[in-house]
Amino acid sequence: MSREIIEVRTSRRVEFIDITSEVEEVVSRMGVDEGAVNVFTMHTTTAIIVNENESGLLRDLEELMEKLVPRGGGYAHDRGFEGNADAHLRSILLGPSKLIPIQGGRLQLGTWQRIFFAEFDGPRNRKAVAQVLREK
Ligand code: ZN
Which domain holds residue 61? Predict the structure, then answer.
């Protein structure tokens, strides 16, 4: 057993949820000393990002996404579908996974680095896979 599902319940259409402690718990339960953990979202309208948990920055990121990929921007996917093309495109831009090193049994993150589940088409119940790649 080298993987666990992290369940994430989102409460807004666009939301960034800090899942660092959940990933730390998985690494701790696996008893891995050195290696890496891959965190992968199983959805097409979400992403995994690593950055600072500061409310102003998260608001800036939300505004950047709205500028780069505005909702209802005349996308082909919005014709006859759920109208969530912006969420898919934001997911593609930010990517579905991040690989985080593990050293001495702990996530090797910088002081201000946190792992976020990025929701772009919530609120929904979501799943991310945390898979440990063990060196020893
Ligand atoms: Zn869609």
Answer: 2-134
C-alpha–C-alpha distance, residues 17 and 127, integer Å: 12
Ligand 1 geometric centre to CA of 34 (Å): 39
* 3-class SS string, 63-113: HHHHHHCCCCCCCHHHCCCCCCHHHHHHHHHHCCEEEEEEECCEECCCCCC
Q: CB-side exposure of 111: number of CA atoms within 13 Å?
A: 0
For residue 32, give the CATH number of its domain: 2.60.120.460
Report how far ligand 1's centroid is from the alpha carbon of 82 (Å): 6
**pTM for this predicted structure:** 0.96
What is the CA(78)–ligand 1 centre distance, in A?
Answer: 8
CB atoms within 10 A of CB 85: 20
Q: What is the mean pLDDT of the chain?
A: 96
| Bridging pattern class, strands 97-103 and 125-134 | unpaired
Residue 136 confidence class, pLDDT cut points 50, 70, 90: confident
Number of domains in the chain: 1
Please say if the pLDDT value at position 36 is more than 80: yes
List CB-based neighbours of ion ligand 1 within 5 Å: 84
